[in-house]
Amino acid sequence: MSHPEIPGPGKLFLSILSSRWELFEEELLPALSLRFGRVDFESPYIPLTETDYYNQELGTPIFRRIYTFYPLVELNRLPEIKLVTNSLEQDWLRDDKRLFNLDPGLLTLERLVLATGKNFTHRIYLDQGIWADLTLIFTRGDWVDLPWTFPDYASEKIKTHLREIRTSYRKQLQKASQTK
């Protein structure tokens, strides 16, 4: 028989897509920090070239930036976090279109799970209309994509940043366990 155990915290991961960074970046980052904690990882601008899914709404060329935050968060907060990011997207609408797409998730030593409001065969319902998308798993020393992983998340340019974030997260977990 299995015995329920509350998991440790995860690393809040946020991907932002936009073609108009100059219109919001200076104001959005403090708003994110106010809600989620201080930014402790910020990627360079990464061109989104694997899909044109967002082009009509966000314009072109689209660049992604990845952010993570400190402190670590309890895994059951993912629906709440997604609802906050949805609200921020709504607050920043221009001509009924989003200026940016906020893609929150939680990174653990084993996986990257993104939050979404869309159901699909491999997604697990969490709460409040939010689903968990198991996007990548970490096994045999590296990030491995799954049959449903979006091509941009399966790319080496994203996995490189995820390796760095995971290493930092592991150190944060070790430090937290030493202080207990």
Question: What is the fold's blueprint, element by element?
Answer:
Layout: E1 11-18, H1 25-36, E2 38-42, E3 46-47, H2 55-58, E4 63-70, H3 78-91, E5 101-107, E6 111-116, E7 124-127, E8 130-139, E9 142-145, H4 151-154, H5 156-179
Antiparallel strand pairs: 1-4, 1-5, 2-4, 3-4, 5-6, 6-8, 7-8, 8-9
InterPro entries: DUF4416
Protein name: GTP-binding protein
List keywords for this structure.
180 residues, GTP-binding protein, 9-stranded antiparallel sheet, DUF4416
Describe this structure in words.
The model has no long low-confidence stretch (mean pLDDT 96). This protein has one domain (11-179). Helices cover 32% and strands 30% of the residues. It is built from 5 helices and 9 strands; from the N terminus they run βαββαβαβββββαα. 27% of the residues are buried. With 180 residues, the chain is an alpha+beta fold. The chain has helices at 25-36, 55-58, 78-91, 151-154, 156-179, and strands at residues 11-18, 38-42, 46-47, 63-70, 101-107, 111-116, 124-127, 130-139, 142-145. Strands 1, 2, 3, 4, 5, 6, 7, 8 and 9 form a 9-stranded antiparallel sheet that branches.
